[in-house]
Amino acid sequence: MPAGDIGVGSREVGWLYGAYKKVTGRAESSALTGKGLTYGGSRIRQEAAGFGTVYFLARMLEHQGETLEGKRLIVSGFGNMSWGVCRKAAELGGKVVTLSGPDGYIYDPDGVNTQEKYDFMVKMRYSGEDRVEAYADQFGVEFHPGKKPWEVPGDVAVPCATQNELVVDDAVMLIANNVRYYVEGANMPATTEALKLLRLSPKILTAGAKASGSGGVAVSALEMAQNAIRYSWSRKEVDQKLRAIMSSIYDASAAAAEEYGLGYDLIAGNDIAAFKKISEAMIAQGL
After folding, report:
1. DSSP of 98-137, one letter per residue?
2. Which of 117, 217, 220, 235 has the fewest Cβ atoms within 10 Å of its own Cβ atom?
């Protein structure tokens, strides 16, 4: 099920969909997800991954008797995932204070929390320059060349850039800075050793991307559902459904971890919950 990802947005998916129709002679809108709204796409598809990550984080905070209100989020990247995290975190009372790129990171103490800043992130993303320094130039904030944002103190770390961006030294920095929550947005953003260190720390609650970063996949499924019923849900309806899906993923992960004596290990719980669902379906079908 091809869909958008790094460097692939609705424009590229549109070209793929057009090519698919030419090759097959069929117009099956569910053949790809992440399409434009004029030909079968879903509302909030671009924001979905970031929104879903924040919804998962909100449930983790709820478990601790807390909310996002007043929380400082240390975020990497400045693409779709980061953009979605910034917007939904601000909506729920949190504040993203860093963004990063291959050239370094910016520190915005006021938070990436205005429409002007969101729009500028989109502009940076589509410029093709892959530089976050432009944000610092635009808004007069600090730019730290050649560095990662994990040295900045905060309550929550949300890696949103790419695979293996967070290594052991970064994990040590997060622990030393008393970061309390580590929630993955990007796919496998931490090396195996770094993630192991974070999971072993009694100071940090962790969530893996297979659960917390699955919002984009969830809305891809919702896009397919809308194509099947030939009806487009409103932005509010899609957002509500996404929140419910992320909540159910959290609940399944937490319940599986507890059932198998693993306490509050959401990463292990998600792996177990997913395995049980697949294995039970296979057994039911005699496979």
Report:
1. EEEETTEEEE-TT-S-SHHHHHHHHHHHHHS---SHHHHH
2. 235
Please provide residue 42's backbone torsions phi and psi, each rounded to the nearest 5 degrees: -110, 145
Strands 72-75 and 156-158: parallel
Segment (H or E) for 183: strand 181-183
CA torsion sign for 236, 241, 242, 248 is positive
Q: Which of 223, 281, 218 is nearest to 250 (CA)?
A: 218
Q: Which CATH class is domain 48-212?
A: alpha beta
SS3 at position 5 = strand
Round to whole Å and give the CA distance between 199 and 211: 15
Neighbour tally for 36: CB within 10 Å: 14
Segment (H or E) for 96: strand 95-96
Read off the pLDDT of residues 1-41 as tens digits, 9 standing for 90 and up: 667 777 788 888 899 889 989 999 988 877 788 899 998 99
* CATH 3.40.50.720 segments of the chain: 48-212
Query: How many H helices and E strands in the chain?
Result: 11, 8
